[in-house]
Design a protein that fits this description.
Blueprint lengths: L2 H6 L11 H23 L5 E6 L4 E5 L2 H13 L3 E11 L7 E9 L2 E13 L2 E4 L3 E4 L10
Antiparallel strand pairs: 1-2, 1-3, 3-4, 4-5, 5-6, 5-7
Length: 145
């Protein structure tokens, strides 16, 4: 079992990186491959989320989008997590690719980040574009003053 597969099943990350960006990168490295696998297996990405606990453990959760945010927000308010991610399938306009995997990343000590991985169906395969990142919105953690 790889470290990523272990993380998907709630095992602790081998070494918790020290910087917020590294925490967010660890979540992104969990979310993108999971979403890609779900696209191949199910033809869609049903919303799912993940969090990083204080000890570096990554946990994933699925559900209705609003409930995902509520659960992650409650964990953040309780001080149980340092970072969170939510993944959904979105449609793009004015882009060569029609769809994208969107991952919203947040950290208690860093600005939120949204990443898009455009994709399209080509014959019987999926073709992916370049990952796009831009500033995100505060949804899980309280916005610092």
């Amino acid at each position: 079992m790889t470290e990523l597969e272990a993380a998907c099943h709630g095992a602790a990350v081998a070494e918790l990186p020290g910087e917020p960006r590294e925490h967010m990168d660890a979540l992104l490295k969990l979310m993108i491959p999971t979403a890609r696998r779900r696209l191949v297996e199910n033809g869609e990405v049903v919303p799912f989320g993940a969090s990083m606990a204080l000890d570096g453990q990554l946990d994933t959760v699925g559900g209705v989008l609003d409930e995902l945010y509520e659960g992650l927000r409650a964990s953040a308010e309780a001080g149980n997590i340092v970072a969170s991610a939510v993944c959904v399938d979105v449609q793009l306009s004015d882009h060569p690719f029609d769809d994208a995997i969107r991952v919203e990343l947040e950290h208690r000590d860093a600005e939120p980040l949204t990443c898009l991985l455009p994709y399209r169906r080509a014959d019987d395969a999926l073709e992916y574009g370049e990952l796009i990142a831009f500033p995100g919105e505060w949804r899980t953690f309280a916005q610092p003053d």
